[in-house]
Amino acid sequence: MEKSIQIYNKKLKNYYDSDGKLMQYPSKRPMRIMVLIRIIEQMDANRKYTEKEINEMIKLHIAFGDIELIRREMYQYKLLGRLRDGSEYWVEEDWRNVYAEYIRED
User: Fold this and answer.
1) Interval 3-56: pLDDT, tens
2) Pseudo-torsion of CA 86, 22, 43, 56, nearest 10°?
3) Measured between alpha carbons, how far is 84 from 66 in angstroms, rounded to an integer?
4) CB-based contacts of 27-36 (< 8 A; 24+ apart in sequence)
5) What is the pLDDT of residues 42-59, one digit of tens each?
6) Coil, strand, or helix at residue 82?
7) Phi and psi torsions of 55, nearest 5°
């Protein structure tokens, strides 16, 4: 899988604009996970976020408008946790262990 991850990392460069914003959400699952990891790495694991704050964080990293898709995927891939009513979000504690093979070492 390590070699695949390196290949995906190279391909991912084509998905970002010159400002480092994601232009299009990848269709392949490993590449999606890698994109979501890049976003979650910028969040503070020791604080709670509102939905609005999460949306703003996502907005900083994408050049397209589907913030909800990214937020939903971050939750589904268990990178983000949330209260049932969506009033509070947080970075899941063990995401680094779950996705260790996807974490970039540059």
Assistant:
1) 777 888 888 999 999 999 999 999 999 999 999 999 999 999 999 999 999 999
2) -50
3) 21
4) 30/4, 30/5, 30/102, 32/73, 32/77, 33/77, 33/99, 33/102, 34/5, 34/8, 34/9, 34/102, 34/104, 36/70, 36/73, 36/74, 36/77, 36/79
5) 999 999 999 999 999 999
6) strand
7) -60, -40
Residues near 91 by Cβ (< 8 Å), separated by ≥ 6? Answer: 40, 43, 44, 45, 79, 80, 81
Q: Return the axis-axis angle of helices 2-12 and 29-40, rounded to nearest 10°.
A: 70
